[in-house]
Amino acid sequence: MDDFRLARDLPILFGAFFVLTAAIGVVRFPDLYSRLHASSKLVTLGSAGIFLGVAFALSDAAAFTRLAAVLLFQFLTTPLSAYLIAQAAYLRGLPPILTGGVDEWGALGRADEVAQADREAQRLLAAESGEDEG
Amino acid sequence: MIINLALGIVTLSVLLVTYRVLRGPSWGDRIMAFDFLSVNLVVLFALIAVRTGYLVMLDAALVLSLLGFLSTVALTRYLLLGRVMK
């Protein structure tokens, strides 16, 4: 390891470890909600580490701005997509395998009512815009 | 070299998650694994940019992260509401 550089290699190793841990969690965990936990949280940390190491390795202003944009976008969207997937699965009625939780919303599997309300809202919106045009 | 090791590790994780995309018992697992796959490919592109010196790969990574999030939103919206846009 003659060309080991601390600022470049330590974050990349850290990030690669967490990305691999997240992949193992996605493969091995028992149900969707625990898999989402592994994929959303660990991969955010892992990709942050790898982007930091890549920024140090390239040490270029153009590369740094692109990496900062990707990192900011990942930080904004990874929790959001995990939330969307969990919400869709919950409303479509996928029960969690792990027991002992309390279903406070009580809407497990009631996606049709949500879709119905959405169609109603779309209809109202269309009617309103039609009135504006006419 | 650490970059090669990291490339190997991330490629292994891409293969592991591809198993979950193909296997995944419910569609939610497939969407989740697909989203995770796009994030993994973004990381892989950044590492390839370091390994080969092609900085264009960083632009590809930016576009791929945008497309991955957009496809996740579209798939969840379609499966929950039955429509993507209007």
UniProtKB/TrEMBL annotation, chain B:
It comes from the Bacteria. One of its GO terms (molecular function) is sodium:proton antiporter activity. One of its GO terms (cellular component) is plasma membrane. The chain crosses the membrane at residues 6-22, 34-54, 60-80. InterPro entries: MrpF/PhaF-like. Pfam families: MrpF_PhaF. It is found in: Cell membrane. Keywords: Cell membrane, Membrane, Transmembrane, Transmembrane helix, Transport. It is a multi-pass membrane protein. Belongs to the CPA3 antiporters (TC 2.A.63) subunit F family. This is Cation transporter. It comes from Deinococcus terrestris.
